[in-house]
Amino acid sequence: METLPTTTVLSSKSERRGRSSKNQSTSKPSVIMAFFSCVAWLYVAGRLWQDSENRVILNNMLMKNYDQKPKVLTVDEKLMVLGCKDLERKIVETEMELTLAKSQGYLKNQKSGGKRLLAVIGVYTGFGSHLRRNTFRGSWMPQGDALKKLEERGVVIRFVIGRSPNRGDSLDRKIDEEDRARNDFLILENHEEAQEELPKKVKFFFSAAVQNWDAEFYIKVDDNIDLDLEGLIGLLESRRGQDASYIGCMKSGEVVTEEGGQWYEPEWWKFGDEKSYFRHAAGSLFILSKNLAQYINTNSGSLKTYAFDDTSIGSWMIGVQATYIDDNRLCCSSIRQDKVCSVA
């Protein structure tokens, strides 16, 4: 009877120890799981925070770029980027030196052998004008040895023609053959011989003439007139040494505004309310002194052409210190009255 309480007490203690050890064994996994849960939460929270920071940075960059217009690089900046600035400077200096040399008469391919000629006469011609050229050769234009003797006197005469739109075709070959036989052509390699290109032909002619011959005067002549060659030479001799001379039969007149009409000027609206041409030498024959022809050669790339070569030349002469010389002897007509030229 005395041992019963003791047994009960011991049994209670054993039961409490069992429960305690069971609670300890079940709490360890819970602590570990809680730890890893905390670590995972901290990792996810860190990533979310980093992502939010990145979004803020990207948003700021987008807003900044949105407010700024894209920068357009200048030519100078592009050259700096490419490392070509120094090369560009050298090119500009060389071009300036070349322009200066041209203006002072140091020109390539000059055929006058150091002696300045009196005149270079360019007779405009076309692919279909073979018979007319032969007529000229049998009248006022010397040929063969007579042409060489005329050049010894200081006067060069050449038929002026460009190239066919179909470069190298039968038209070009016939001109080349005729030139080899006659040796009296100035072929403009960079000019296309076509009706709509005629106003540009005058630029190519004066440029080529200046580059090939050193002369006092350069003359453009149409192929529908006859020349009193000796009379023209006498006129030029009397004008020697007169720089900036623009010589011809000076005229002006109404600008034709009706499309399809003879002498129609597509850019008629540029000539003011009265629609009148400025003073210019008639296109059948006009003369430029050396420095004016050099001006065309140097600036040919930027000179504006109009519908006709004579008005184009006249527009260029307005912008320079040219001396206009109106000579009635250069007013070609069907009736020769002390004229240098007449209509053929």
TrEMBL record:
InterPro entries given in the database record: DUF4094, Glyco_trans_31
Domain DUF4094: 27-104
Pfam families: DUF4094, Galactosyl_T
Pathway note: Protein modification; protein glycosylation
Gene3D superfamilies: 3.90.550.50
EC numbers for this chain: 2.4.1.-
Subcellular location: Golgi apparatus membrane
Residue span of region Disordered: 1-26
Gene Ontology annotations for the cellular component aspect, listed alphabetically: Golgi membrane
UniProt topology in membrane: Single-pass type II membrane protein
Cofactor(s) recorded in Swiss-Prot or TrEMBL: Mn(2+)
Enzyme class, UniProt record, top EC level: transferase
Keywords: Glycosyltransferase, Golgi apparatus, Manganese, Membrane, Signal-anchor, Transferase, Transmembrane, Transmembrane helix
A GO biological-process term: arabinogalactan protein metabolic process
Organism superkingdom: Eukaryota
Biased composition (Polar residues): 1-10
GO molecular function: hydroxyproline O-galactosyltransferase activity
Family assignment from sequence similarity: Belongs to the glycosyltransferase 31 family.
Function of the protein: Possesses hydroxyproline O-galactosyltransferase activity. Transfers galactose from UDP-galactose to hydroxyproline residues in the arabinogalactan proteins (AGPs). Is specific for AGPs containing non-contiguous peptidyl hydroxyproline residues. The addition of galactose onto the peptidyl hydroxyproline residues in AGP core proteins represents the first committed step in arabinogalactan polysaccharide addition. AGP glycans play essential roles in both vegetative and reproductive plant growth.
The name this protein goes by in its record: Hexosyltransferase
Species assigned in the record: Brassica carinata
Source organism phylogeny: Eukaryota, Viridiplantae, Streptophyta, Embryophyta, Tracheophyta
